[in-house]
Amino acid sequence: MNFEIGIFSLGEVVPDPVTGARPDSRQRLRDLIEQAEAAERAGLTVMGVGENHGTDVVAASPVVLLSAIAGRTHLLRLTTAVSVLTAGDPVRLYEQIAMLDNISGGRAEMIVGRGASRAVRQALGLAQDDHDTVFEEKLRQLLRVRETDPVTLAGPLPQHGVDLDLRPRPLQPCLPIWLGTTGTPASVARAAALGLPLALLRTHGPFAGAVPVVAAYRWALEASGRDVRTPVSLSVPGFVARTPARARELSHPCFAAGARSHGPVRPDDPRWTREEYDRECGPEGTLVVGDVDEAVTKIVAQQRAIGHERLLLRMDAGGVPHHLALESITLLGAEVAPRVRAVLG
């Protein structure tokens, strides 16, 4: 099978949990470009940048950063991970991704989700009770823009009843749009009904918890008359080092400060104890943390149980120092990925 392995980042700008040093925002942008270059050199196939807003991140506009990465790479698939569709305009987002697709030579994708924070939703005037309704309408508008040229936009959102001839169109005949979810039944059903690939995020817990989610997605695809081979992507935190002990020692302080909530930890978030963390890194846990052998074993076990076609690892969660992230990315691409592909065939 053509199993893809890549990385993704939220571009966190948080103090190092060990030294307390806070990186410079401009340096963090350069770090992410370097991580993408390292990923491509090592043989990984995907780079994702997640949208987030605030003082503790730099990826407020993932497409801008991905465009910079496109100019420094040649093969990597470049995806938002995710684009917060409720917080943006679907037409403008499509135009930006189409430009990225042209700049990159046809390597652009997007993962769309509802994951705007309460503060962002309030700033945009989005009420809590209409959050899902807004996402549904914007997603359908995004798909209309992708599938129709010129497009007529209809519905309660702005631009209704207006014909738009959007240029440039993407190089790819059908620009990939994945639906991001943590596994909620409504999101899984929506992705299947629309025939969209599913991008499943898991931050902790037994990875077996993803098995019924993907099974429900496959069943819903079939029930909706969609292609049951529509791909699934799994996104989890990961870190690879030369020994299992080194991998855990280096990553625990950072992941305990950021990976559980998939972002900067709020004051009331529980931290992982070392015992909990070791369990998460163990054979049944979601995290792909360990030496090369452990990483290969975990990735293969997850794929055989869940049946996903793509794995994205978040290697810099919680302020993992840049030089350590680069080392981990290199090991993942140069040593882990070839062995995984050899086993999976």
UniProtKB/TrEMBL annotation:
InterPro entries: Bact_Lucif_Oxidored, Luciferase-like_dom, Luciferase-like_sf. GO terms for molecular function: monooxygenase activity; oxidoreductase activity, acting on paired donors, with incorporation or reduction of molecular oxygen. Coiled coil: none annotated. Residues 4-305 form the Luciferase-like domain. Keywords: Monooxygenase, Oxidoreductase. Pfam families: Bac_luciferase. GO terms for cellular component: cytosol. PANTHER family: BLR5498 PROTEIN, LUCIFERASE-LIKE MONOOXYGENASE. This is Luciferase-like domain-containing protein. The lineage of its organism: Bacteria, Bacillati, Actinomycetota, Actinomycetes, Micrococcales.
